[in-house]
Design brief:
This protein is mainly α. It is built from seven helices and three strands. A three-stranded antiparallel β-sheet has the order 1-3-2.
């Protein structure tokens, strides 16, 4: 059983390597020249896994203001990565989705990380996964 200090030491050494490897993941060629940032990956993940969403829903999930999401959506719509459609039940609300042209590249890009997480998380019990996620969230909040 590792002590708290031993665990902290291990994580302080492990986290920069993980971040470095994540940063080295090759951006698909069709997305490479689009100047994408990590915040875009989170937006793409929500749209890929949860389907089309409104600006306010995306803002809540990304923990940013709707104005910030609106700016991101405008930028990515101009680049052809996202599509903005009017909600048929509420014309004031826009529904945001990944464009069909870029969906396969985004899916392949995110799939690498998803496969790595699946490898790490599948052997755990539901309770162990919940504890792991709770711990990561607590670390993020403490930063």
């Amino acid at each position: 059983m590792a002590s708290v200090d031993d665990s902290i030491r291990t994580l302080l050494l492990l986290m920069p390597r993980m971040v470095g490897r994540t940063k080295r993941l090759k951006i698909p060629e069709e997305l490479a020249g689009l100047n994408l940032a990590p915040r875009h990956l989170s937006l793409f993940a929500y749209l890929l896994f949860d389907g089309p969403l409104g600006v306010n829903e995306l803002a809540e999930r990304l923990e940013v203001t709707p104005a910030t999401v609106s700016l991101m959506v405008t930028e990515l719509t101009r680049k052809g990565i996202l599509e903005r459609q009017e909600d048929p039940t509420d014309r004031r609300r826009a529904i945001i989705t990944l464009s069909d042209d870029h969906r396969p590249a985004i899916d392949a890009w995110l799939a690498r990380g998803a496969r790595a997480w699946r490898t790490a998380l599948e052997p755990l019990t539901n309770d162990e996964r919940a504890l792991f996620l709770k711990t990561l969230k607590a670390y993020e909040e403490a930063l």
